From TrEMBL:
Pfam families: TrmO_C, TrmO_N. CDD domains: UPF0066. The lineage of its organism: Bacteria, Pseudomonadati, Pseudomonadota, Gammaproteobacteria, Oceanospirillales. Keywords: S-adenosyl-L-methionine. This is tRNA (N6-threonylcarbamoyladenosine(37)-N6)-methyltransferase TrmO. Residues 6-147 form the TsaA-like domain.
Length: 237
């Protein structure tokens, strides 16, 4: 078959500014919202008429950071500790023959601002500026399959550890939340309990990491007993 070209219908505006730290699956962090801006000529009231009746939608998107980086027939899934190889089609690795992703997200609102159509969503695992190819309503009667199973990933794995904030970091969260109306402390807690560390580093207790969220650099570390937020630094973005 000949090559097929797709044109993005929209672009994601998200607090996730870099690949590291984004939840590995959708629906794990609900307090961080994103916005899908539809692009001309797709950004019209007619194109989304009736979509407000859907509580959730599917987004078909491009793993834009993986374009041109190739793929391999087997990968090492983080869920298996990075030590076992599976076929790429048995995983959700972004490094695929065609770097296309599919995520179900909650549709919070549809907004019309002058000539712009904006879809506010939550539960997204999408990098800022991600191109979106299509939107489809989530149909509970057919999209949900109660008998479905996958032996390697039967349930959500979240860390059950306390998240402690150093005094300056805690005060920063309070002030940021007042100014930006973002529940920053809860966002950080949800994000870090997803354990964004690379699989091969999960036995290295106490190592310091940084995550970009909104216009901030979150510095943190993890031990077997707790997750500690060390510092929150504005990036000026």
């Amino acid at each position: 078959m000949n090559a097929i070209e797709f044109e993005p219908i929209g672009v994601i505006h998200s607090g996730y500014k870099e690949k590291f730290g984004i939840p590995r699956q959708p629906g794990l962090v609900h307090s961080i919202t994103a916005t899908l801006e539809l692009l001309p000529p797709y950004g019209s009231r007619e194109a989304v008429r009736g979509l407000e009746m859907a509580s959730h939608i599917w987004l078909l998107f491009l793993f834009s950071e993986c374009v041109g980086k190739g793929w391999k027939p087997t990968v090492r899934p983080p869920r298996l500790g990075g030590n076992q190889r599976l076929g790429v089609f048995a995983t959700r690795s972004p490094f695929r023959p065609n770097p296309i992703g599919l995520s179900p997200v909650r549709l919070e609102a549809i907004r019309f601002e002058r000539d712009r159509v904006l879809l506010d969503i939550s539960g997204a695992d999408l990098l800022d500026q991600t191109p979106v190819f299509d939107i489809k309503p989530y149909l509970p009667y057919s999209d949900r399959i109660d008998a479905a199973s996958f032996e390697l990933a039967e349930q959500i794995e979240l860390l059950d550890l306390p998240v402690l904030f150093r005094p300056d970091a805690g005060r920063f969260c309070e002030e940021y939340s007042r100014q930006r109306r973002e529940p920053l402390r809860r966002q950080i807690e949800e994000l870090l309990r997803c354990d964004p560390r690379p699989a091969y580093q999960k036995q290295q207790s106490g190592r310091e990491y940084g995550i970009r969220l909104h216009d901030l650099n979150i510095r943190w570390r993890m031990t077997p007993e707790q997750i500690e937020v060390l510092e929150i630094i504005p990036t000026g973005d």
